[in-house]
């Protein structure tokens, strides 16, 4: 596919950013059940605020999704030099750190994960009955193979995608000055996130039958856990394509920088600016560095002390762990355990 935008200077100002980071700092005690509560939510553009006022239940679900983005991103990249630390900046900061503000591959991942998470959370909320304007997803027309039948409550992915994209893409669709290349990048990566979500809709079944014979299975279409979707997007992050704007008539396209003979693929993350190595602290580049980060001495992956510490070396320390041990099952029906202590050696980067 080609990504196009009107021809105009590309770097007039930074695009207004996705509100996921700001919304993740909304007070946990705040329950959005009155229209005036929408004014208390930071980082939203006018169309998002309007959506909030017209659908308060949906807004509460989106706030939940924003918190989930932060948590899932940090878990997914816990073994990398860049570990989503940018999302941890104070809520009153005016914008992301530069690693998410310059069109880097980290920005690509965050936008894709944000879009997927918002739609995922909405789809699941329909299934659980938390949203009155939607219910279970539709039953597929195609009948499963013999021994299977449709039933249960499917995740309402269609509603999740429609309402999620309406909220997620609003800042990039506003007619205001900004980097159109950045807007196109964010719109594309958000759609990659939703495409990954579509691929994560799988058939789930429950067995029925005498003595667990599973002679009949009741099935429904359900989404995989967000953690699995995030890992899929992490794979796309690692193979993301650097793009550049190219003029075509009165519009511009984003095309692969090194292989611009082909268009950008619909399922690949794209980025405009190269990332720093994140080894040392650099505020201008948005790098917090890896000093004092925990590393794995025996690993050969990205969490290894050699890679995580960027060759600076590491310091060992010991930690006492208290664990359950010598557990014994008692009929019927409880388990008793003892507590055991053990000393483990940890390592942190210099």
pLDDT average, as an integer?
84
Low-pLDDT ranges: 4-17, 89-96
**Broad structural category:** alpha+beta
Q: Helix tally? A: 9
- The geometry reads as globular
Total number of strands: 12
| Tally of distinct domains | 2
**The biggest beta sheet, please?**
4 strands, mixed
CA radius of gyration is: 23 Å
One letter per element, helices H and strands E, the order comes to EHHHHHEHHEEHEEEEEEHEE
Distance between the termini: 45 Å
Please estimate the helix content: 25-40%
Strand order of the largest sheet: 1-6-5-7
Function: Ligand for members of the frizzled family of seven transmembrane receptors.
GO molecular function: cytokine activity; frizzled binding
Family: Belongs to the Wnt family.
InterPro entries: Wnt, Wnt_C, Wnt_CS
Keywords:
350 residues; alpha+beta; Endo-n-acetylneuraminidase fold; 2 domains; 4-stranded mixed beta sheet; 3-stranded mixed beta sheet; 9 helices
